[in-house]
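Quick question, first post here. What does this chain look like in 3D?
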Amino acid sequence: MLVIESWVINDDSPVPVSSTGVVEALRSRIDSGQLETWLTSSSGRLLAFVTNAERAMVVLLEGEGGPGEHAVDPGTAGSSDGFILSNGQGDEYPDEDTVPIREAFRIVEHIVGTGSWPADARWVADR
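> Answer (accepted):
Ran it through. Tokens below.
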């Protein structure tokens, strides 16, 4: 039997966000200047989305402080800044450790809907 997790945005309503509504929620947060979003699943997994509005880092963790994995764009040269965390810290990441924002939205939508990475997404384990 397949059990799909439910996901909530950590600092928003405790009402679960659907796979069809998560991208709209992320866009709304970006528009209001919130570039870091954490979602928690009903099984305790965490999904982080940090963006500079052009690229995004997407990280899936098994639990707080646990092992995780993140989306990658292999072979992409350079780095991008402007990733503003909720504590005000500005980060810069290598572009190969982030993905274009449209791809990030697609990945998050798929994870929220199915609990796993899209089959064609590139990611690496951070273990």
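The CA atoms of residues 31 and 107 lie 20 Å apart.
The mean pLDDT is 92.
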